[in-house]
Amino acid sequence: MSEFGQGRSDRPRRNESNRGGESPRRNDAGRTRNRGGSGNGARQFSASAPSARNRRADQARLTAFEVLRAVDEHDAYANLVLPARIREHHLDRRDAGFATELTYGALRGQGLYDAILARCVDRPLDQLDPAVLDALRLGAHQLLAMRVPSHAALDETVSLARMVIGAGASGLINAVLRKVSLKDIETWSSELVEGIDDENAAAALVHSHPEWIVRALRQALVAHGRDASEITELLAADNLAPVVNLVALPGVGSLDEALDQGAEYGTLVADSAYYQGGDIARLASVREGSTRVQDAGSQLVARALAGIALPDGGEDSYWLDLCAGPGGKAALLAALATIHGARLTANEPAEHRAELVSKALVAIDPDTWMISVRDGREYGDEEFSGGYDRVMVDAPCSGLGALRRRPESRWRKTPKDVAELTVLQGQLLDAALSAVRVGGVVAYVTCSPHPAETVAVVDDLLARNKNAKLLDTGAALEAAALPGLAGATRTVGTGSTIQLWPHIHRTDAMFMALFTRTA
What we know:
It is a single chain. The protein is of the alpha/beta class. Helices cover 43% and strands 12% of the residues. Strands 5, 6, 7, 8, 9, 10, 11, 12 and 13 form a nine-stranded mixed β-sheet that branches. A four-stranded antiparallel β-sheet has the order 2-3-1-4. Helix 8 packs antiparallel against helix 9. The longest helix has 21 residues, at 415-435. The chain is globular, with a radius of gyration of 27 Å.
């Protein structure tokens, strides 16, 4: 029997009979469990008998389970639910880190873990109670990808199930996870891809991405001038836990508190830092809004728009963020606009997201910004024509560039989503070109490298709008970055676009193209 085998109760039985007249064989603790082994060898005992196992769930594991249930039941975003659950359960820094890795790891690895679990369960996974499946995913991640002793991963997951699901479910979970624990993740992966000739299908399974996303990312690499063979590195980077990026709003915030708590200066952009100190809300500067969590790629595209010289060198007083929610780039743009002596209009069509934008801007002088709540396409109307000097179009997109930060999104997106979004992206870009003045600058930005959302949108705009001219976006980005940024630029005629990559730049896969209006 393996060390994970089910044992009998630790309690001695009053009338236990012996065998063949011999006294019952006991271990050093006086227990007579696990007597089914060979008579001439040492018997093995389970890590803990059912009666001795924890009746209460470990709080870090309970936190992860609750987040997975919220994601499944309510289409919640893990990055929004997890911090609240961590605070609700009063997790310390160490347990918060464990809960974070367990939550995101189980979500990222869901495709691979489900394929493994399907070989260990005697029924289709869609016939399992969803809560049971989530518990199995958490157990699988601990067994296969975390530095958790196998007996602890098994016992704690069973205890969790017993408390929040029920005793019957805990028995099934115990049996299934024992089977999972018999092989390491490399062995499981090799067995799963055996006989699969399609390299995209095999990569999708091993790296836990939907196959259509693997194909899209491979195409994106080629479309942006890179080698398709980088797909393995890109998929692996999607599955790494990203370091929290901070930005101190220029003229408003400071990184001093974060640096005192162990943060390190960012290597891509000024006023940024990498933070690994646990719950970021514990920093007063973050709670106040003067320092914000923002990926370095997002910081770079905002600074590139704010820093590029206007082609005609004319007035630079009115800036527009056309799709401002939830407010990260808007906050940085507003701070930069204030330094430039300009005023930012932050537009967001959804009321609840407009409220988030307002909160994001709270640390900035309210006289330098205003909130607009309207469909961004309305800025293409005559009343707004030529009214702005700089316009940011951070367009709604598939989010394929942020899969490492939003791991659940890879299982929600479909190719149809991309097709529908590209129409909206083109319409918003047209509106922005109408709203910017002649000689002003428009930034088209997506958190996606998908060719349909990036290079195709640029090519289509240039084909249908003769008054749009692509600028040297690569040069603008390099001017906004710290020395050393490379491998991002794609030349298009006399202009260029940029594409950042997780496996190269340690950022989200941000795309950017800068345009000016010529007439």
